[in-house]
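User: Reviewer 2 asked us to show a designed sequence for the structure in our supplementary figure. I'm pasting the structure tokens here. Could you produce the per-position amino acids so we can include them in the response letter?
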């Protein structure tokens, strides 16, 4: 994915130099509470290497580094990744705990959705959350996503949200 900027953030591909930030993120029980099991250093390094294979020139797919626009310091991650089943692609975001409650997640969803619809011809963008993750669901609802059903991933029921292109573009009030 080509880098993009929001009002306060820069979103870019991870590099090998980001391995320490990536590990601290993936090893944080607070951050991973609703995402996946925490990873040790070796698992995190292997996961980072796997992510490099998701990057395709000109497409908004993959897991990205999110940094403060002024300092470049690591804040969290943003992703657009393929989902199995009826959904095509889903948006994802997670922040280090010290950056919670500052509006960064909404900023990422707003700008990330725009990038997705500008750079693809997909009719919808999806998001999945654990039902207990009320904060993330609030971010999605604030950004025009609607609860559209359940999604089963690794035998776990997740809430699925969707954002139709027409709704995003303001062509459909629903």
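Assistant: Here is a per-position design you can include in the supplement:
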């Amino acid at each position: 994915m080509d880098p993009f900027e929001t009002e306060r953030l820069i979103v870019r591909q991870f590099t090998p130099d980001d391995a320490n930030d990536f590990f601290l993120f993936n090893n944080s029980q607070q951050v991973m509470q609703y995402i996946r099991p925490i990873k040790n250093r070796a698992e995190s390094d292997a996961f980072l290497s796997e992510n490099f294979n998701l990057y395709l020139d000109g497409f908004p797919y993959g897991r990205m580094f999110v940094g403060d626009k002024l300092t470049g310091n690591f804040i969290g991650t943003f992703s657009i990744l393929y989902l199995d089943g009826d959904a095509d692609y889903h948006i994802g975001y997670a922040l280090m705990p010290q950056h919670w409650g500052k509006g960064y997640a909404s900023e990422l969803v707003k700008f990330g959705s725009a990038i997705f619809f500008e750079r693809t011809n997909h009719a919808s963008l999806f998001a999945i959350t654990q039902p207990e993750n009320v904060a993330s669901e609030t971010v999605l609802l604030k950004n025009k996503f609607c609860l559209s059903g359940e999604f089963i991933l690794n035998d776990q029921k997740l809430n699925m949200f969707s954002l139709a292109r027409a709704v995003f573009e303001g062509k459909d009030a629903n």
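For the response letter, you might also mention the following. The helical segments are 19-26, 29-32, 41-52, 104-119, 134-142, 165-168. The CA atoms of residues 90 and 126 lie 4 Å apart.
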